Amino acid sequence: MSLPQKVDRSMEVPVPTSTPDRGLTWRESARAARTVLAAEHGRRARAAVRPRTSRGLVRDRAPLAVGLYAASRDGRLIRQGHDGFALLEPPLSRTPAPRWRGLAHAVVDRVDRNWGAVVLGTPPTLALLTATALALIPGTGLVALVPVLFTMVHVAVLLTAPLVLALLPRRAPGPDATRLSLLSGTHWTMTLFHQGNDQRVDELFDRVRERLRHLLTTELTATGRQQGTAADNVRVTESLVCLHDGVTTTRAQDLITARHPGTTWGDGADFSVARFDQHPDDAPRVPNPPLAFVRLYLWANVIVVLGLALLVSGQERAACLDRPCANAPTEYWDALIWTAYQLVWRQPPGTEAVSGFAAVIGWLLSPLLPLLLLVSFVAYRRHRRYLDHIRRTNGRTPMSTRLLVVTVTPEERDAVIDSFDRYTDNESTPDFRRGRVPTVRLGEIADTEVFLIQVPTAGGVGASTVSQVAADVIRDLKPHCAIITGICYGLKPVEQELGDVLVSAVIRDLDHAKLTDVDGRVVRQDRSERVAPSPVLHTAAIAAQRQWQRQSGLRVRFGEILSWNKLVNSELVVTDLRERYPDAIGADMEGAAFYAVTRWAGVESILIKSICDWADGTKDDSHHVVAAANAAGFVLHLVRVGAITVGHRC
């Protein structure tokens, strides 16, 4: 299970004037770090905040107390009393420009964000400075070699460990790991969430949302001022990636799951995505990380060679005090050339080192070039594999479309579940924690995450009908589009066959009418409304019709669907319907109410049902299962071929 946090899909917020809380002191930062470590999943949360460098032994970020201190100064730490806080990280591809908050903050921030380089470079630098100082003191001799040996061992261990680990057999990263790396490169991430008081979990998450709005709008306002523009209201369209491992207690995970349902969330997932309103034409952005490790390795070697050249020149001068050394590299430039030649196992022309220190250095430098070539080769292969994976997944949108499928009868529900489970080879089960209405997550197919509900009561009017239940689910789940599917009755038995799939081009509501007295009898004046479902889903269904008909052997018909909150089984009534609505191809009981709910919520929707009878007095249940399966099959086909995708359909 991973952590769902849902941010409103559409919001117009004024540019905030409030500022984040004051920054933490060092004592408060240390106390907060101890509080996290003492929590149920504290060590796992610390690892989420401080991930290891790629295939390395070093953490990517500074110790937790340092990171919390730096984040509090940037406004990325959301505080709630003494024991509640959350941590936000900006996207790697567009880190906000740092603002000057003093020298101490600038140093701490650099240390936090470059902890791997600090661990790699600080000890060798101090050791080389110590060796240089010792080399300048007469009589130290080979004592100055000890810091040099420490430097080389330290750098060799940290830089060759990734190479050794890369050669070991390992499990391939799952799809969640890949998606997480892509999403964290382009979206804000909540890496830590701690609140020991269950009653305040919801409040803390609300503060996270407000702080993210503040950070985004503040950055946008500052950019606008630099360009001579101003914004009174800012529409937030960001998506927040929430790490499952960053939540410190199981209870907090469960509470957020129950109170903020409807996010990208699945059992066993490493993260969830809390969406603001996403623009339809937002294209996925994929960070293309450079070969930073190879550059770091090269610079480390350059620093080592430069430092060793200084030590060699000093030792050579000391060795030549009591004997002539015409060709010894006593000057720094000569020593640098001599040191470079040792990398390729050669001696420079006209130069010959005479000290034992230089001999040891030459022996230690001999494996550097093979290691450099090996590290470059492994890094190149890993980079190529990464780029190949990006190319394979480039057509996928990290943010999948959320589709809600609505059914009424058990046959309709089972038909949809069976169709999707056979395709995904999974067993879907109801989720009773996602809001008040149980939902079934059918999986993610072609970048479409599909959810199913069953409305308990047929028709459009009543406490447990589609008008109430679907509205409740849409409010919690926030789907991008919705489809009502199942069974209906046909109105053209000469042209149609049982099992034909009907797709609504128009829905006519028959429940609206005016009743008057005329010559002693009641006259019904039809006031029905004709509404058109989603034109984009309608167009997508038309485009997918031919392929599915050829594969299934079934027919798909488009036209007017009547919606009447009455169960019809009368030849006289059906004949009257055919005469009054000659263009209608079928009728059901929920279509108009479903359209009203989705239209009010701003969700693209369409009706897809299959003919189970003719409602002419001979109605029975013998074709319910087959008809429901046919309609479910066409819904699955639309999802499978990518007819429902963010930015293209819904």
Could you please describe the fold and organization of this structure?
- This protein has 19 helices and 19 strands.
- It is an alpha/beta fold and 650 residues long.
- The chain has 3 domains: 12-120 and 177-275; 292-373, no CATH class; 401-640, Rossmann fold (3-Layer(aba) Sandwich), CATH 3.40.50.1580.
- The strands form 4 sheets. It has a 5-stranded mixed sheet with strand order 2-3-4-6-7, sandwiched between helices. The protein has a 5-stranded mixed beta barrel with strand order 12-18-17-13-19, surrounded by 4 helices. Strands 1-5 form a two-stranded antiparallel sheet.
- Helix 5 (115-135) packs parallel to helix 10 (292-319), helix 10 crosses helix 11 and helix 15 runs parallel beside helix 18.
- The model is unreliable at 1-19, 261-268, 277-290 and 393-398 (pLDDT under 50).
